[in-house]
Design brief:
By secondary structure, the chain is α/β, with parallel strands linked by helices. The chain is built from 13 helices and 17 strands.
Length: about 425
């Protein structure tokens, strides 16, 4: 098989070097490039520095036949991408007066005079193809240098995507020697190592195809990838997915983009069952995940966040004697919290979470990261579990919320 064309993505913008902005454009572009059969070999983020941009362009062009940049096409002084690319490519920049006039008319239609600084967005690189931007004023550009395709796109995600879909992607289709097909299996409530033990025997069978395990608090993603022509790649990745799903069985809660909360909601809706929650250490995080799903009011009735011991007693009916003998962080308290939530909301099922998220509050018997979970079902069936999580407070809370949702899902699916 002919080797796949290679691509590098450069996100330009000093704001992405700080803690407040993330480069999401590269993730979206990666999916589209993979579908076109183009291998991603480099991703980078550089600030609004012409010399740094030029250095990164040289490195990217040495590795790849496609170089795609995003960002730095705005009207302000720190938007330097056009000038930097032009200098790197040894091209001049000219102001297109016809484009200036078109921009002014666009602003006038909105009843606003165009600021003079916007004229900068009419600075075009000589010899580059101008890529129309239906959503904004900054166009993109496409030029070639030493047989490398350099595509320059805005950083605004909606603008970047539309220009790519309309002006770049059609030309890329068929340029790859193969296409890539990907499947993602999502597993919650299990450690990465435990998932690895289950699926490791399949690695030999699928040794020619990449398998990647990614872990986040409370969830593991198994990425399966096949490369070939469209029909071959689809057939291979479907067979891979079937093999891995068979081994993992009911542990797989979702495939591709399916979130755990959506999977839980879909299952409850199918079964015609309602749910309520009682969350202490997670402070309503599991409820927030559930209610992020549109239509969740069809099955989710509500939550109680009894952070203080007195609230557990007054709002959920946890017995003072239970807290005195076993503590608020205990299986006994978790069970009574779940029963209280089910009774308060008259739900078919209720779940509870109580634990020590840290950084203080732990003991030798119950160290930081200790969390108890319980379920109470209409009719009296119950379940309870204990987990000990590592990591900081946010990690413990996120992992606990995810485990509670997975516990609900498995309880409904398997009855235990």
């Amino acid at each position: 098989m002919t080797s796949a064309p290679r691509a590098a993505i450069i996100a330009i913008g000093s704001e992405m070097l700080g803690p407040l902005r993330r480069d999401t454009n590269s993730l979206w572009l990666t999916v589209r490039l993979e579908e076109a059969g183009i291998e991603i070999v480099r991703k980078s983020v550089v600030g609004d520095d012409p010399e740094a941009i030029a250095r990164e362009l040289s490195c990217a062009a040495a590795d790849a036949g496609w170089v795609i940049t995003t960002g730095g096409l705005g009207p302000t002084a720190d938007d330097v991408t056009v000038a930097a690319v032009a200098r790197w490519a040894n091209r001049s920049v000219r102001r297109d007066e016809a484009f200036v006039a078109a921009m002014k008319k666009r602003w006038e239609r909105r009843g606003i005079p165009m600021p003079a600084v916007n004229e900068k967005q009419a600075d075009f690189i000589d010899g580059a193809r101008v890529l129309a931007n239906p959503r904004g004023t900054a166009p993109g550009f496409w030029l070639e240098k030493d047989s490398v395709n350099v595509v320059i796109l805005p950083g605004v995600p909606s603008e970047m995507r539309e220009i790519f879909e309309q002006s770049v992607e059609p030309a890329m289709r068929g340029s790859g020697a193969a296409t890539v097909r990907r499947r993602v299996l999502r597993i919650a409530g299990m450690a990465e190592s435990a998932v690895e033990e289950l699926v490791a025997p399949l690695y030999r069978k699928w040794s020619a195809d990449p398998v990647t395990i990614l872990a986040s608090p409370g969830e593991v993603e198994l990425h399966l990838v096949a490369r070939g022509d469209a029909i071959e790649a689809e057939s291979r990745v479907a067979a891979m997915e079937a093999d891995f799903a068979e081994v993992l069985a009911h542990r797989v809660h979702g495939r591709d983009g399916s979130e755990l909360a959506a999977s839980v909601g879909r299952l409850l809706k199918e079964k015609g069952r309602t749910l309520a929650l009682a969350e202490s250490c997670t402070g309503g995080l599991a409820s927030a995940l559930l209610t992020d799903v549109p239509g969740s009011s069809a099955y989710f009735l509500g939550t109680v966040v009894p952070y203080a011991d007195a609230a557990k007693e007054e709002l959920l009916g946890v017995l003072p004697e239970t807290i005195r003998r076993h503590g608020a962080v205990s299986e006994e308290a978790a069970r009574e919290m779940a029963r209280g939530a089910r009774e308060r909301f008259d739900s078919d099922l209720a779940a509870s979470i109580t634990g020590i998220a840290g950084p203080d509050g732990g003991s030798e018997e119950k160290p930081v990261g200790t969390v108890f979970f319980a379920l109470a079902e209409r009719g009296g069936r119950e379940a309870a579990k204990r987990r000990l999580y590592g990591g900081d407070r946010a990690t413990v809370r996120r992992a606990s919320a995810m485990f509670s949702l997975e516990m609900i899902r498995r309880f409904v699916v398997t009855g235990s």
